[in-house]
UniProtKB/TrEMBL annotation:
Domain of life: Bacteria
Any Pfam family the entry gives: BKACE
Protein known as: 3-keto-5-aminohexanoate cleavage enzyme
Alphabetized GO MF terms: 3-keto-5-aminohexanoate cleavage activity
Organism: Hoeflea olei
Length: 238
């Protein structure tokens, strides 16, 4: 089990004053998160205009690796970043500073092609499953056993419904005999519920300003390192 730090996501600059949006800011934040107990990172690189950009992966990965040598660094490949499938694949193909892993959302039409490209490049794949349909699509892929891990990513905000979706995804994976590591997380209102649920199931989790800006007690989070420290404390409970 690990706690992954998700530093920024698609959040806008006004979401939180400590949201890291430049390579240097992400590198400094990553180091603070490692010191707080994070095992690795999930990052959405940003271009000079601070918008998400797959073309910004090289500079961001280089900066984070300089600050945190030996730590795994992952990025998003969300279809919305480049806006079309061909542009996404072209941007990924142009990477020279390869991330250790990249997340691929199985809800996106081009997901299998993106996964095949990443695999050929030697980049680990985090398969993102947000629905039971995503899980069914994932297990239908002949290469599903080759992914680095599975992300069960719950977007529902009402906890009973969110837990039901997580259970449904887990059931599909179990019936298919999937044995890959699982990382479970929620977002906003359910973020801390799913940190606790992941620990209960002995799965990995993630936390950071991509997923929420509040501490477990509901107070405002100072930043990513404080969120990571709180999640690690939950995982260390006896």
């Amino acid at each position: 089990m690990i706690v992954q730090a998700c530093l920024n996501g698609a959040r806008t600059p006004d979401y939180h004053p400590a949201l890291p949006l430049t390579p240097d800011a992400m590198a400094a934040d990553a180091l603070a998160c490692i010191r707080a107990g994070a095992a690795e990172f999930h990052i959405h690189p940003r271009g000079p205009d601070l918008a998400e950009s797959l073309a910004a992966v090289d500079a961001t990965i280089a900066a984070v690796r300089t600050a945190c040598p030996g730590s795994l660094v992952g990025v998003s490949t969300g279809a919305w970043i480049e806006g079309d499938a061909a542009g996404t694949r072209a941007a990924i193909s142009a990477w020279s500073e390869l991330p250790d892993h990249a997340s691929v959302n199985l809800s996106e039409p081009d997901a299998p092609a993106v996964m095949e490209l990443l695999s050929k490049m030697g980049v680990g794949i985090e398969a993102g499953l947000a629905t039971v349909a995503d899980a069914g699509r994932f297990v239908s892929l002949t290469s599903h056993h080759k992914v680095l891990r599975i992300l069960i990513e719950i977007e529902e905000q009402a906890l009973p419904e969110a837990l039901a979706v997580a259970d449904g995804i887990a059931s599909v994976l179990a019936r298919a005999g999937v044995r890959r590591p699982i990382l479970l997380h929620g977002i906003d209102d359910t973020a801390w519920d799913f940190v606790r649920e992941a620990r209960r199931r002995t799965w990995s989790t993630r936390i950071g300003l991509e997923d929420c800006r509040h501490m477990p007690d509901g107070s405002p989070a100072p930043g990513n390192a404080a969120l990571v420290e709180a999640a690690v404390a939950i995982y260390r409970q006896g």
